[in-house]
Amino acid sequence: MQMRDAMKLQRAWQAKGAPPCAHPEMDVEFDLGGRTGDKVCTTCGESFSREELKEMGR
Ligand SMILES: [Zn+2]
What we know:
The structure is a single chain. By secondary structure, the chain is an alpha+beta fold. The protein has one domain (3-56). It has helices at 3-15, 50-56, and strands at 26-31, 34-41, 47-48. A three-stranded antiparallel β-sheet has the order 1-2-3. The radius of gyration is 11 Å and the shape is flat. The mean pLDDT is 97. The structure holds zinc ion. Residues 21, 23, 41, 43-44, 46 line the site of zinc ion.
């Protein structure tokens, strides 16, 4: 997922009152052509670093 799309998702999620999200599906985050090394929740648009994902067991 592109970073800008993740930001759009985040904004839409905030507009819904930012309900809790279990982050059911993660996608690799891209900034234009390159991977950022992070993953993004396709539901709420929150991005997670490798360290965060490891801590979460994902
Ligand atoms: Zn989420």
